[in-house]
Amino acid sequence: MKTDAGDTRPGTIGPGVEQAAPNLHSFSGAGLRPRRHIAPAIRRLLGPILVLALWWAAAIAGHGRRLPAPDAVLATGTDLVRSGQLPDAIAASLQRVATGVALGVSAGLVLALLSGLFRIAEDLIDAPVHILRALPALALVPLAILWFGIGELPKVLLIAWATCFPVYLNTFAGIRSVDRSYDELARSLQLGRWTVVRRIVVPGSLPGFLVGLRYSLTLGWLVLVVSEQINASSGLGQLMTEARQFFRTDVMFVCLDSYGLLGWLSDRFVRTLERHLLAWRREYQNR
Q: Are 152 and 144 in contact (CB under 8 A)?
């Protein structure tokens, strides 16, 4: 096909000469070599498989007493599941984390909305929150025992304390990062304040809130490990305490693996929420 001398369409070199446009999605890197695609599910498994291989190699290298092999841990975990000890411990730990995270996330979300929407609330809330978040949750264990005893309440409150601040920080940042052009659009449409909050501010701050929720769930499991050492009569922490007394490293590794798996499942739960709640954002459409 002939073209004019001034034709600058893609795929043309000069008058009367055409060149096939390269398929940029089929090549990458120097030399335009074909890209080899690996299924996402396989890519996600490579990291855990590598960790498992290193663990097995270390156990074979002669540290079997202090570092049990993965097959020994699997056998112990199977026995604990059959006896009902592991399911009961996981259920008790899940209940503590769910209650603590619910309290902490709710408090952080309310404080962030107040500080983000009202200047006077920011002046009253923001500085104290930043002061309090500098206090390590684990350093508050002695005070929690002194004030609330050794029952379930201090365990739940420690988890709530740790999980409040990530939600506050990320949600507050999300509210303040909403594009100003939306505010001008709302004024031109004469939208009410609460309509703006519901239709613009809340959707705009939702990504920040979900990031804070992911951090909070991780912190919740970390604090649970320590809080369950406070005279717990059930839960993974109590199971680990008994295993430590009898030098059962295999049981301890079962509990640690359970903590890690539960934390990973919590993170995947939030990622699933992101895909559904933020489907309108381009960067979340193919996740």
A: no
Burial group, residue 97, by CB count within 10 angstroms (0-12, 13-18, 19+): buried
Q: What is the pTM of this model?
A: 0.74
Domain extents for the chain? Answer: 1-37, 40-67, 69-284
**Domain 69-284 classified CATH 1.10.3720.10?**
yes
Tens of each residue's pLDDT in the chain, 287 residues: 444 444 444 444 444 444 444 444 444 444 545 556 777 777 777 777 888 888 788 777 765 567 888 888 899 999 999 998 999 999 999 999 999 999 999 999 999 989 888 889 888 998 999 998 888 877 888 888 888 887 888 889 999 999 999 999 999 888 887 766 666 666 666 666 677 677 777 777 888 899 999 999 988 988 888 888 777 778 888 888 888 888 888 888 999 889 888 988 988 888 888 887 777 665 555 55
